[in-house]
Amino acid sequence: MWKRKKKQQHKNKEQSLEVRDLSIHEVRKAVHAYADDKPSEVPLSVLIKEDLTLDYELLSPYLHAIPEKNYYMSRETYELFEEEDRGLAHEIDLVQRAVDHYMKETKELPVIDHDPFKRINYYKLEKLGLLPDRPNRDYYMTREEFMVTYQKPD
């Protein structure tokens, strides 16, 4: 009995929010505000649905609307992507997981030897069966916490 009422309240609240054209910067700002306000034991990944879209119900106190277009967030790097880059969000998660497993198994970075940009060596990942398909773009290791990025370092 209580669950129905609670679900109905959430549904009414969600229906009362207007759909607006929100920029990626507005959504990113709302995600940061949510991250600042959430309890420390709650991971930021609760915002990310299975298909990597954001849970706008959780973000509604910060957005005060529902975005017209979908935004996607990487579960591994927490980067936010627009609709046209949805595949990039999935791919970066795949590469980051492969890199994490490689480092756990070998205790070394899977980068191309002597590459000043620390480009990911797909051959090293494939050799251990960690990467099912080779991405069409280059990925790089960042300087912080062994994170993967698609942006070439300066």
UniProtKB/TrEMBL annotation:
InterPro entries: DUF3939. It comes from the Bacteria. This is DUF3939 domain-containing protein. It comes from Halobacillus mangrovi.
